[in-house]
Design goal:
Blueprint (H helix, E strand, L loop, with lengths): L4 H15 L4 H8 L3 E10 L5 E12 L5 E8 L4 H17 L6 E7 L7 H15 L8 E5 L5 H15 L19 H20 L7 E5 L3 H12 L3 E7 L2 E4 L6 H11 L9 E3 L9 E6 L16 E5 L8 H9 L4 E2 L1 H4 L2 H15 L5 H25 L5 H19 L5
Parallel strand pairs: 3-4, 3-5, 6-7, 6-10, 10-11, 11-12
Antiparallel strand pairs: 1-2, 2-4, 7-8, 8-9
Length: about 425
């Protein structure tokens, strides 16, 4: 089903800004990105042929701090998707109250079709193309779908060629190059902490709670790892090729070993196959979409049989699906809260890079947990204070108010 992510985000923004009774012109200013850069990226393939790929860096708002947000390498990347993702970053950093704005970037490419050399060249060409608008105090990228610590290392190296050693230009780097302990796991770990708080708040027993995870990359695997440690029963997971299910619960440690050895979740012992649509319909306590946007939409929302949706992915639930789930009494814990652990740890990485002083993992995780728990209870308090206020609208209201205050105080609307 074709989903316009930007339109979906605009709907979410409009609902919250009208609850806030935000001035119309201020709302327009906050809704749309400050700057949009499209770049054409030439790539000489290993067979010497030339391909030109389209890339983007979109800077949504920097009233509260430098633009901050990931880089996605995926065939579906387009301007509207990057716009929506950049805006979600502004409101995510505001909601969780770290001194960043929001931005996002991406290249329309399937990295699985590239060799390692091609991937490195493409990354370096992209850095050169967006270099005029990024900087340690201006715009700091990070990993997202199909990008990882190695790509961040190439990114940092290319930028440092002209600016000197600059680890703070990008987060999600390898530890040996200024990455932070705890960053790689932080998004999934954060999702598991939020889920734990939701369970407690809503009276769902965490020990033995059943969980389904769509998407088993960085975020999905770390969420599974930590939820398994909390005693949850992960009954199904999936990747781009479909999923596996075992109603008695998957042994997550053994599954991660199997994935490491075979490169895939498929073929794991004592499991049955399931497709990426059907996995969403499995009865469970918690459904965690942890892959792409728009997967829960008006055509399938009615068929969900979970108690709560926890959005580890960005933008997985469309506004019409939100409404359907509300009528079905299935609360949705929004992306800007549920996956904010990644950007919080990125912030800690950036702070360590600026200080050139590094923290141990325990300190990172402790600070991360405190931020997320406070964030959840702030959202929950507002959501429960008024009839008909979803967690998403409450989260957006808190975030929009903070960005509006910063824009106003900085005199940007004079
Ligand atoms: P990733 O590339 O590491 O993993 C993505 C996973 O999704 C893979 O298992 C892939 O096979 C699977 N997938 C791809 N297409 C799919 C499909 N059509 N159906 C089901 N599964 C599919 O990416 P990631 O970093 O884990 O990001 C996942 C989501 O979390 C994205 O929405 C991203 O924006 C969001 N997110 C990531 C971070 C981060 O720190 N990495 C932070 C915040 C939010």
């Amino acid at each position: 089903m074709e989903i316009n992510n930007f339109k979906a985000y605009c709907d979410q923004f409009d609902r919250a800004s009208s609850e806030l009774k935000l001035d119309k012109d201020l709302a327009t200013l906050l809704k749309y990105p400050d700057r949009e850069l499209s770049v054409d990226l030439p790539l000489v393939r290993d067979d010497k042929s030339l391909t030109v790929l389209r890339g983007y860096r979109i800077q949504h708002n920097n009233a509260r701090g430098p633009f901050k947000g990931g880089l996605r390498f995926h065939p579906c990347v387009d301007k509207d998707e990057v716009r929506a993702l950049s805006a979600l970053m502004t409101f995510k950093t505001a909601l969780i109250d770290i001194p960043f704005g929001g931005g996002k970037g991406g290249i329309q490419v399937d990295p699985e079709e590239l060799s390692t050399r091609e991937l490195e060249q493409l990354t370096r060409t992209f850095v050169r193309a967006i270099k005029p608008i990024i900087g340690v105090h201006t715009d700091i990228p990070a990993p997202d779908v199909n990008t990882n610590a190695q790509i961040m290392a190439w990114f940092m190296d290319e930028y440092s060629e002209t600016h000197g050693y600059t680890p703070g230009i990008v987060t999600g780097k390898p530890i040996s190059l200024g990455g932070s302990l705890g960053r790689e796991a932080a998004t999934g770990y954060g999702t598991s902490i939020i889920l734990r708080e939701v369970a407690q708040h809503r009276g769902i027993e965490l020990n033995g709670a059943t969980v389904v995870i769509q998407g088993f990359g960085n975020v999905g695997t770390w969420a599974a790892h930590h939820l398994h440690k909390f005693g949850c029963k992960i009954i199904a997971v999936s990747d781009r090729n479909g999923g596996i299910v075992n109603n008695n619960g998957l042994d997550i440690g053994a599954l991660l070993e199997h994935k490491k050895e075979s490169g895939s979740i498929h073929g794991f012992d004592d499991t049955e196959s399931i497709d990426n649509e059907a996995i969403l319909r499995l009865p469970c306590d918690f459904l965690i979409p942890a892959a792409l946007g728009g997967v829960i939409h008006k055509m399938n929302a009615n068929e969900l049989r979970c108690k709560v949706v926890v959005e580890a992915a960005n933008g997985p639930t469309t506004p019409p699906a939100d409404d359907i789930l509300r009528h079905k009494n299935i609360p949705v814990i929004p992306d800007i809260l549920a996956n904010s652990g990644g950007v919080v740890a990125s912030y800690y990485e950036w702070v360590q890079n600026l200080q050139q002083h590094y923290w141990d993992e325990e300190l990172v995780n402790k600070k991360l947990e405190t931020k997320l728990v406070n964030g959840f209870y702030e959202v929950a308090a507002l959501a429960h204070s008024r009839e008909e206020l979803s967690y998403r609208t409450a989260a957006f209201m808190i975030a929009i108010k903070r960005v509006a205050d910063a824009v106003t105080l900085r005199g940007r609307i004079s």
